Amino acid sequence: MNLQMSKMKVLAVDDNRTNLHILQVFLKKLGHDVILAENGLEAVNRFESDAPDLILLDIMMPVMDGFEASRRIKAQSRERWTPIIFLSALNRDENLVEGLDAGADDYLTKPINFVVLEAKLRSMQRSLAMQQTSIDALHRVKAISDNVIDAIVTMDEVGIIASVNRSAERVFGWAATEMVGQNVSMLMPEPDKSEHDGHLAHYQSGAPSKVIGQEREIQAQRRSGESFAATLGVTEISLDNKRMFIGVIRDISERKQSEQKLRDSARLLQAYYDQTQSEQQLAIRLMEKQLHRRGLKDDRLHYKVIPAESFSGDIVAAARSPEGRFYALLADATGHGLTAAISVLPVLALFYRMTKLNRSVREIVQELNQQLKESMPVGRFVAATLLCLDEIEMTGEIWVGGTPEAFMFDRWGRNTRVFPSENLALGIVDNDVVDCVPVQFTWEKEAQLILCSDGLLEATNKDGVQFDAQGLTAAAANTSPGNRFQQIDAALLAHLDGCIATDDVSLMVIDCP
Questions:
Q1: Contact between 364 and 350 (Cβ < 8 Å)
Q2: Which of 236, 287, 323, 451 has its CA 20 to 30 A from that of 130?
C-alpha cells in the first residue's frame, strides 16, 4: 500500500444483516473490498484467515461481543497495526472508554453518519498508507542487513539483544528468536561472559570505553560451545531517547587458521632450511677435506675453481708420486651443485690412490672409467683431463675426455700446441670401448700447460658473447709465465663484467720444468 492507494480490505461485523448489507453497499461504493461477519467469534476467525486492513465492529452481538473480539484481535496483531472502529448504539461515555480500553482506535454511535464514517475511513487510510511505507522501508533495511556477510547484533543499554541479522544466525548457530530478548553475553565464552555486564555498567557510569568506535579481535562462542576468533566493531546510537549499541562481528576463524598454517609452514621451512644449511656446511667441510690435498700447493701449479652453486661439479687435483712424477687432473661432472660434487668424489679417491702407486695415465683412466661406469646412474658421467709430467726426462702424457682441449704456451705466451678432446667422458662406456691411450709430448723451457672446463669457455657476458678459446689465448698472449694465470683470470672477470657464470668454472696453469 502507498499514500495514493484508495482500496482497503474492510471486515464489517454486525449481528443485524440489514446493517451489514448497508455497510457492504456503502464500502463497495467507496471502492473497498468487504468481508462480513455476524458475531465476535466469527470476526476473530475472519481476521486470522483474511488479514483485513480495517475492522468495523459492532459491540452488542451473540456468541462473543465486540469488546472481547477486539481484545483477541489486538492480542494477535503484532507486526502491523489493524485499526478497529466500533459502531454501536451504546453512546454513553463509559461505553466509549470501555471500547477504547478494549483496543478500539475510534468509536461511532448508531445511527451511523456515513459522511463522518467516510471521513474516518480516509483518515485511517492515510495512517495505514504511512504504516505500509514504514514497513516497506524496514523490509528494505532488513533485506540489506540480512545480506551483509558480517553478523549484526543490536542490544539495549543493559545488554539485551534487540535484533540480529541472518548472518548472525549463520555465524553463531542460534535462531533469531533464540537470541532476541537474551543477554548478549550468550555469544561470548568465559571469562568475557561473566565480566560483560560489569564492563557495560562501568561504561554507563561515565568511564571511557575501550570498545565503542573501534574494531578489535575477540573470542566469540557458537551455540555448540565452540569458541572462534572474530573481529568486533561497536557503535552507539540513541533511539527514542534510549541508548542502543550495534555490534558488527566478523568470523575470522578461517583466516586465523590459514595464518597459523602459514606460520607452521614457515617454521617447518625454517627448520628444513636450517637442517639443510647444517648438512651443506658439513658436506662443504667434507668436500674441502677431499679437495684441498697437499699436492695442490705445488709451486708449479696455479688453479681456480668458481662454483655456480654452493658446491662445484668441477674439481682440480694434483699429486707427486714417490718417484717424483707430477700428476694433474681437471674433472667436470654432469650437472651442478651437491649431486655433481658427489659424483666426482670417487674420481678424487682413485686419482690420489693410483698416483701414489706411480701408475701410468692409461692405467688411471681405465680404473676411473670402470669405477664410474659401475657406480654412476645412467646419464651421469665425468669429463676429465689427466696428465703426467716426467720432469727428469722432460716428457709428458695427457688424456682429454669430454673436457675442452688443453693448450701449451711458450715463454712468450704463444700457443704452440693444442691437445684436442678426442675421447668420451668417463663412465659412459666400458673399458673395451673407451680409448685410454694418452698423447705423448715434450716441452721447451718455461712452457706452460693450460687446462680448463667448458664453464670457462662458455662464460657469457651481458651481450651474449662467450669467453671461448680465443679469449683464453688472447689473454695469455704477450704475457710472462709468472703472471699468465693472473692475466687470464683478470680477462675472464672483465669479460663477465659483473655477470655470473651459469656453469662451474675451473682453470689450471701448470709450469713445465
A1: yes
A2: 236
Is the preceding omega at residue 208 within 30 degrees of 0, hence cis?
no
Highest mean pLDDT among 239-243, 267-271, 346-350, 385-389: 385-389
> What pLDDT is recorded for position 74?
87
List pLDDT tens digits, range 356-400: 999 999 999 999 999 888 887 777 889 999 999 998 889 999 999
Q: What distances in angstroms separate CA 423 from CA 345, 363, 439, one per listed residue? A: 21, 15, 11
Residues 435 and 422: their CA atoms lie apart, in Å, by 9
> Is residue 60 within a helix (H) or strand (E), and if so which, with residue range?
none
In whole angstroms, give the CA distance from residue 452 to residue 305: 10
Asked, as a colleague might, if the bond just before 191 is cis with ω within 30 of 0, I would say yes
In this structure, are residues 384 and 398 in contact, taking their beta carbons and an 8 Å threshold?
no
Nearest Cα to Cα of residue 199 among 186, 212, 189? 212
Domains of the chain: 9-145 (3.40.50.2300), 148-255 (3.30.450.20), 287-511 (3.60.40.10)
All cell numbers assigned to 252: 575470522
pTM of the model: 0.51
Report CA-CA distances (Å) from 237 to 9, 181, 250: 38, 19, 20
CA of residue 303 relative to chain centroid, distance: 49
Q: What would you report as the CA-atom Rg of the chain, rounded to the nearest whole angstrom?
A: 51
Please give the grid coordinates belonging to residue 411.
Answer: 715463454
Q: Which has the closest alpha carbon to 298: 323, 315, 285, 317?
A: 317
Taking the alpha carbons of 12, 17, 18, 19 in that order, is the dihedral positive or negative? Answer: negative
